């Protein structure tokens, strides 16, 4: 979990404090918000305070959505300010627990890599890939950094490409190839006196940074509001005037899919869907000193949910369940005719 905003534009200490306050207002989103706050504290240089936030999450009586990710981030942070033994112990614990979240594998592997434990990093990347990608027809987007990191470490070790390295090359979409980005000899060009060599290396680094930022964070500039059938029934029962906005649940779902397809066709990137609940919407309306029957609040509510980390990407990955919750594959449900 890393901040979405470029580092040069942020007072990281102030942003961490703001996120902590927001977590207090929205306890259901506290995990995502506190992870963002901890990331800002790391960037501010206050690593002990970041560790305190990770410990706060891990000791919370509330069940975490992704405790392995929190432990991985804690280990990476601890190692950066001298707590190597504790970090190593946590990393081994994460690996032995075989998490299903690729981010946890990437973070512990990169922690090993950054401290020159290249063999261990390769083993960790490979363990995660073997667990998450064996017999998978198409790697989900979230697993791409796992394959890219594995490719990078193996290139540094001088190991010959295997099938997963070839797959990583196929998934990589930047103009500079992975082999070039991950070439160990590139480091020598940074000491060159040749302006052309330095300019070429700057171009490579920019491309690599772009890929890294994309892998770490996919902001949702446009998120469409979705109501489940039960929540929409409750909403319309409490606020009948909203029936003009939502004539039926089936039409509501069709409108969501249609709107997202239009936005995608117009070139809008990184589209998302947020699912609302009536109590949450009522609380939002109260915070805006307005009535839930005010339809202008609906897009604002969707944006607020997205800002709190509640958006899921649209369209779903090939073979994934449809966003509507019907339990069918997206391509056989609302995605019919969209995915090739």
Structural overview:
The chain has 340 residues and is mainly alpha-helical. The protein has helices spanning 12-25, 30-44, 47-58, 67-80, 84-97, 102-114, 118-133, 144-157, 163-171, 178-181, 186-189, 195-216, 229-238, 249-265, 278-287, 297-307; strands spanning 222-226, 271-275, 312-313. The protein has a 3-stranded mixed sheet, with helices on both faces. Helix 1 (12-25) packs antiparallel against helix 2 and helix 6 runs parallel beside helix 8. Mean pLDDT is 85; it is low at 1-7 and 212-218.
Mean pLDDT score, rounded?
85
CATH class of the largest domain: Mainly Alpha
Q: What is the CATH superfamily of the largest domain? A: Tetratricopeptide repeat domain
Report the CATH topology name of the largest domain. Answer: Serine Threonine Protein Phosphatase 5, Tetratricopeptide repeat
- Rg of Cα set: 22 Å
């Amino acid at each position: 979990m890393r901040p979405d905003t470029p580092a040069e534009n942020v007072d990281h200490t102030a942003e961490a404090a703001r996120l902590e306050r927001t977590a207090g207002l929205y306890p259901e989103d506290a995990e995502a918000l506190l992870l963002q706050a901890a990331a800002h504290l790391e960037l501010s240089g206050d690593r002990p305070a970041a560790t305190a936030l990770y410990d706060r999450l891990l000791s919370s009586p509330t069940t975490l959505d992704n405790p392995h990710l929190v432990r991985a981030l804690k280990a990476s942070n601890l190692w950066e300010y001298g707590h190597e033994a504790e970090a190593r112990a946590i990393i081994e614990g994460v690996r032995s627990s075989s998490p299903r979240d690729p981010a946890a594998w990437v973070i512990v592997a990169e922690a090993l890599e950054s401290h020159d434990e290249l063999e261990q990093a390769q083993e960790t990347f490979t363990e995660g890939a073997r667990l998450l990608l064996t017999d998978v027809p198409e790697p989900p987007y979230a697993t791409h950094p796992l394959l890219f990191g594995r490719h990078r470490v193996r290139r540094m070790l001088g190991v010959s490409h295997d099938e997963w390295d070839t797959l990583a090359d196929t998934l990589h979409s930047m103009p500079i190839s992975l082999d070039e980005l991950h070439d160990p000899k590139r480091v020598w060009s940074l000491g060159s006196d040749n302006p052309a060599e330095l300019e070429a290396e700057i171009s490579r680094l920019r491309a690599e940074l772009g890929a890294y930022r994309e892998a770490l964070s996919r902001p949702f500039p446009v998120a469409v509001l979705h109501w489940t059938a039960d929540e929409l029934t409750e909403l319309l029962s409490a606020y009948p005037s909203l029936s003009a906005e939502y004539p039926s649940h089936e039409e509501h779902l069709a409108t969501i899919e249609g709107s997202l397809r239009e936005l995608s066709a117009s070139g809008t990137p990184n589209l998302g869907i947020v699912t609302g609940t009536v109590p949450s919407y009522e609380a939002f309306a109260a915070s805006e000193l307005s009535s839930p029957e005010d339809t202008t609040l609906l897009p604002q509510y969707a944006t607020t949910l997205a800002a709190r980390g509640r958006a899921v990407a649209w369209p779903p990955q090939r073979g994934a369940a449809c966003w509507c919750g019907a339990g069918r594959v997206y391509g056989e449900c609302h995605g019919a005719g969209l995915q090739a």
